[in-house]
Amino acid sequence: MNKSELIDAIAADAGITKAAAKLALESFLGNVGATLKKGGRVSLVGFGSWSVSNRAARDGRNPQTGKTIKIAAKNVVKFKAGAELEGSVN
Question: How is the beta sheet containing 48-55 ordered, strand by strand?
Answer without folding.
Answer: 42-44, 48-55, 74-81
